[in-house]
Amino acid sequence: MRSEILEVARRRFWRDEDKLEIVMSVGVGGATVTQVAQRHEITRQQIYAWRHELKKKGLRSPDAGALFYPLDIPVASGVPMAPPAAEAPQPTAVELRLKGGRSLRFDSTVDPAALTALIRAVEAA
Questions:
Q1: What is the phi/psi pair of residue 55, to 5°?
Q2: Helices and strands, number each (H, E), in the chain
Q3: Cβ distance 36 to 26 under 8 Å?
Q4: How many C-beta neighbours within 10 Å does residue 26 have?
Q5: What percent of the chain is predicted at pLDDT more than 70?
Q6: Which terminus of the chain faces fewer neighbouring Cβ atoms within 10 Å, N or C?
Q7: In degrees, to the nearest 5, what angle opens at C-alpha 91 toward C-alphas 99 and 116?
Q8: What is the pTM of this model?
Q9: What is the Cα–Cα distance from 29 to 59, expressed in whole angstroms?
Q10: What is the pLDDT of residue 77?
Q11: Residues 104, 119: Cα–Cα separation, whole Å
């Protein structure tokens, strides 16, 4: 009678944060899906499945390839900036994407100090 010792396949548990980090690393520095999959010892299909799963959960934005830059709004001695008195701008809808896949939607006429407080509260939650 012949017997063989087989390796036990390991099954790893991935948190959503880890999945998101791996999925978002595709394209960074020119990294392909295949390269990212090999680096993390997973299949290409796993990355595509995670993309779909994270999008359904609302953790991955549909425009994940977009670049966002930090914005510093200068405030002179604690006084919020006001538009020129000659012509008030028409309010427009603004969407601000924060870390962790969170988004804030607000009107462009919102007070910068209130917006800053809101962003800090959302990021602290």
A1: -65, -40
A2: 4, 2
A3: yes
A4: 19
A5: 70
A6: N
A7: 35
A8: 0.45
A9: 22
A10: 60
A11: 8
